[in-house]
Structure prediction request, 470 residues.
Amino acid sequence: MVQTVKNKSKYKVFFRRVSTTNQDLAMQESADSMYRKNYIPNEILILNEDGVSANKLDIEKRPQMKKLIQMMINNQVEIVYAFDRSRLFRDFYESNYFISLCKKHNVKIFFTSAGNGHQQATDSTFIEGVMNIVSDVEGKNIARRTEEARKRYPPHKLGYIKQKETKQYIKDPSKKDSLLQFFTAIKKVTTHKDLEETLKEYKKALKTTTNQLIKIARDPFYAGYDLTTGRNKLSHVEPYLSYEGFEELQAHNAVLLTYQEIERSLRNQDIYNVSCGICRKPMIFYMDIPAEKAWYSCSRKHSKNLLGTEDLFLIINKSLGKIIKHLNTELLLKDSRHFFQIIRKNVDAELKSLEVKKHNLMEKIIFDTDDFTNWKENPHYVEITKLENIQKDRLNLIEEKGDLLLENENLVKLVKEYLHKCRQTNPFFLTSLLIRTLYVYPNEVNIEVNKFDYIQDFRSQYIFKGDDLL
Prediction:
């Protein structure tokens, strides 16, 4: 017995979005109110995205949009009401994806602002594509203008108090002296060590981060200027520096920039999951920027256990080399040939069985048929034709598997070459494939290798001496 279930009414979705928390949804609510009156409350679903930028966030980071798309895929939506196209998407590709879903699941789109000169939704892929491009360009222009406005009128700026009424930026009395001292001190910095000591001192005094302090030292806003599109004086900003003082400070940009580059380079070395062999817990990553050194360390209720990243990377690289060297490609090819023979044996048996069936059917045609005028319509002949097609498919399968076996032999050579190159260019990727865990002890590194059949004669212990594993 087949039981049928009556489909529930599909939702009429009212989708609204504002980009920032400073905006509100009142205008969009007002625009769609006359359409909401046409439905009973149970038919309506309201989805509000408050403070969500369609320029900066893709679908995966927009929960309400993800919900709407999933409902469309589940055929739960009849029509989507939105103020205009920009409320749904600004990205051209995501807009096209959304429109294609609407077409596939018969979802209509209606723009509540269409009476104010906006182009209403159409069934034309071309027109919608053009409108999506316009929305994409407009969105990028808005983002650019917003960024430019933020440089002149940022919502928050360390060392300043923003007066809402006059939009003036005055110095924060609680941070004024420390910030002035910071600018004076940063001008005297000539080495990375001096810079680190200065950042450490004023990070504490100003309750901020080292990266934020470096940004402040390079920000013309503190001189009362916006230099994005030329030398523009910001009359609403009370400066900490003269323009000449700011330019003098930028003479030290080389130290600031190289400091950031070293920090970024060292931080990028923290790519492996390294555990302490003593307590079996993750080790903590440390770095010394002036010395350009980084290391993993652990001292949880035991003597300090540490290992420099240079030594660790060298050990990992050499270990990967050993693993690749002991990768038995001949065994892999041997298994490929063995599986091919099994497939061929099974197919040969099936071909013989098919041949016997064809022979039996042919005998029935010869001995049981009196009239051969319409022999092609004979059920036995039709069945023989089907069996012959199956035989062709099986022969094609054998040929295909034979070609794959030949490709395997070439592929194995390419894989081994790739693994050696990957060991140099992307050791993290290769480590994730071949190495399960890394345990660091005071005098050794324990590397647990992912076991599989094609690693042969791989010793359990190697001694690291100089720059090689013995």
